[in-house]
Fold this protein.
Amino acid sequence: MVTVIPELPGQSSGRLIIKSPFALIIDGINIDDLLTDSTGYFETLTVSGRENPAYNINSKDVSSRDGAMYLSKNLATREIKVKGYIQDISNAGLQTRLSKLAKIFKKDVVKISFADDPNYLFYGTFSNIEVPDDAEIQGEVVFTFYCADPYKYRVSQTLTISNSQVLTLNTMFPVCPILDLTFSSAVTEFTIQNAQTGLVVRYKKLTGTSDATFKVDVLNGVLTSTVNKYDQLSGLVLTSDWEDFKIDNGQQLVITPAPTSIKLTYEGVYL
């Protein structure tokens, strides 16, 4: 009689009968799928560090006073640890799988997400890996990612909005917008203002050909004319609140002159 022991989600049995619900996804690549074939596999077992981040507490010791004087607090950096199990029929094969990981993790910053929460991601830098001994062909591996930005982001969403529309956004905190603007004719200048905060982005063409379509990407620090593909950052007026410009629920964007089409792309921000 054969006793069958059922495999639990996230439990390595030697063959992936049930895929791990926590599968690690880097820049859209499912690592469990990437490292699994007829001669071996990888399976994500556990993830830690996705919960609410810690805070740095700033305080000052005061003589003749118990404890300390509280000054302020700010979010600490986030560390995400991913434990997995890797196996191959040979040590050379195992090293090949690890080399594939090294190539993906080489980027300074990667998008980190998981199969059980695919609509949200973290931005992090791969910092460390614990692997089986060189002589082994299987064993646990642990990846560590350092997230200088402790926030969690919802995958990009795109809306078509009208000028001065009250915004309804899927976010907990203000977001950096990406705006695709189309004007009725070529323009040499325009202004984008957050009606509630007063923050403003001003553009004024200095030289060259004007255009009727622009991408104003505050999130990634890019301003281009989308038809001619020209970099237009030189036209950004110095008094603009470029680095601080954000929008939130219930706020309005007022663009002058009024475009005929406005597409807003953003990543919701959460803890």
In short: The chain has two domains: 24-151, 156-270. The chain has two helices and 20 strands. The first strand starts at residue 24 and ends at 26.
